[in-house]
Amino acid sequence: MGSTIRIPTPLRNLTSGAAEVQVSAATVGEALAALEAKHNGVKARICDEQGNVRRFVNVYLNDEDIRFLANLETPLKDGDSLSIVPAIAGG
């Protein structure tokens, strides 16, 4: 079954318009690597040069911010849902 990654609208041009992508992975980091394998270039928009999630991007595992879990090492189980949420700023 695997996990579902929900893709925000600004990144859908990198996923051929897909709002959700199914991946098989044991951790959040592996899920992002699997997403990159399917859709080249998307991980660079989510992670920095060191491979960490960018400051202005939030990743949620079933409504929990991964920064408060084990970050990219957070384990996944079948049926989990990851949501990528870019921060919104303005004034």
Furnish the topology, listing elements before pairings.
Elements: E1 3-6, E2 20-23, H1 28-38, H2 42-46, E3 57-61, E4 64-65, E5 81-86
Structural description of this entry:
- This protein has 91 residues and is of the alpha+beta class.
- It has a single domain (3-86), classed as Ubiquitin-like (UB roll) (Roll), CATH 3.10.20.30.
- Helix content is 18%, strand content 23%.
- It has two helices and five strands.
- A five-stranded mixed β-sheet has the order 2-1-5-3-4, with helices on one face.
- A hairpin with a 2-residue loop joins strand 3 (57-61) and strand 4.
The biggest sheet, with number of strands, parallel, antiparallel or mixed sense and barrel status, is:
5 strands, mixed
Q: Give the overall silhouette.
A: globular
By secondary-structure content and strand pairing, the structural class works out as: alpha+beta
Radius of gyration: 12 Å
- Count of separate structural domains: 1
Query: What is the count of β-strands?
Result: 5
What share of residues is helical?
10-25%
Strand order of the largest sheet: 2-1-5-3-4
CATH fold-level name: Ubiquitin-like (UB roll)
Q: State the fourth-level CATH superfamily.
A: Beta-grasp domain
Query: Architecture, CATH level 2?
Result: Roll
Order of helices and strands: EEHHEEE
How large a portion of the residues is in β-strands, by DSSP E?
15-25%
Summarize this entry quickly:
With 91 residues, the protein is α+β, with helices and mostly antiparallel strands. Helices cover 18% and strands 23% of the residues.
